[in-house]
């Protein structure tokens, strides 16, 4: 293996520029009832908070079924809608994660989060609806994940799950952020 050993000189006191963008915002949802307005709100939030990556993670219909989400259209149709929206935004920092499409079956949220935390930059913020957050809080692995990431909810939960309520300092809503 050859190493490039070209001597470089810089001015005294030079400090490399710090990255102004940090972290990843992951939007985990079935994207059945998420329209252009909601996607634009999430993209605006990601831009305002200077996230390096904004990842849309559409879940497979088998995953939606196991999570108790209302019937959803086929995965590829929802994926096409997301890609069309992404093309219209012309933002290279928006990514559509296709892990569930490759697996074509139920993917536990743990596996999905593990996959994304391995390939995207830290810190991690998980954007989801309050209903999805309540489902996530009901899983045994919630306690482990809530220490590794922060939740951003699209709306204030009417009746938050006890674990979600217990971890209230680890989540906020899009509305909280817009007021700040």
Written overview of the protein:
There is one protein chain. The chain has 180 residues and is of the alpha/beta class. It has a single domain, classed as Rossmann fold (3-Layer(aba) Sandwich), CATH 3.40.50.620. Helix content is 41%, strand content 16%. The chain has helices spanning 36-48, 61-67, 75-89, 99-103, 109-119, 130-137, 142-145, 162-166, 174-179; strands at residues 24-29, 53-58, 94-96, 124-128, 149-153, 171-173. The chain has a six-stranded parallel sheet. The longest helix is centred in the middle third of the chain and has 15 residues, at 75-89.
Mean pLDDT: 87
How many angstroms separate the termini? 51 Å
Q: How many structural domains does the protein architecture include? A: 1
CATH architecture: 3-Layer(aba) Sandwich
Strand segment count:
6
Helix content, binned percent: 40-55%
> Could you name the CATH class?
Alpha Beta
Order of helices and strands: EHEHHEHHEHHEHEH
Overall outline: globular
Strand order of the largest sheet: 3-2-1-4-5-6
Strand content: 15-25%
Task: Describe the secondary-structure layout.
Blueprint: E1 24-29, H1 36-48, E2 53-58, H2 61-67, H3 75-89, E3 94-96, H4 99-103, H5 109-119, E4 124-128, H6 130-137, H7 142-145, E5 149-153, H8 162-166, E6 171-173, H9 174-179
Parallel strand pairs: 1-2, 1-4, 2-3, 4-5, 5-6
């Amino acid at each position: 293996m050859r190493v490039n050993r070209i001597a470089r000189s810089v001015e005294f006191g030079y400090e490399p520029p710090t990255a102004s963008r940090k972290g990843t915002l992951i939007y985990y949802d079935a994207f059945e009832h998420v329209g252009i307005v909601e996607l634009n709100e999430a993209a605006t939030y990601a831009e305002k908070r200077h996230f390096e990556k904004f990842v849309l993670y559409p879940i497979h219909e088998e995953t939606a079924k196991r999570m108790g989400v209302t019937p959803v259209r086929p995965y590829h149709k929802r994926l096409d809608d997301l890609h069309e929206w992404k093309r219209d935004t012309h933002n290279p920092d928006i990514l559509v994660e296709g892990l569930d499409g490759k697996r074509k079956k139920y993917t536990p949220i743990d596996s999905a989060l593990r996959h994304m935390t391995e390939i995207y930059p830290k810190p991690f913020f998980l954007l989801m609806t309050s209903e999805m957050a309540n489902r996530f809080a009901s899983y045994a692995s919630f306690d482990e994940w809530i220490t590794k990431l922060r939740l951003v909810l699209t709306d204030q939960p009417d009746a938050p799950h006890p674990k979600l309520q217990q971890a209230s300092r680890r989540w906020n809503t899009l509305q909280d952020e817009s007021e700040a």
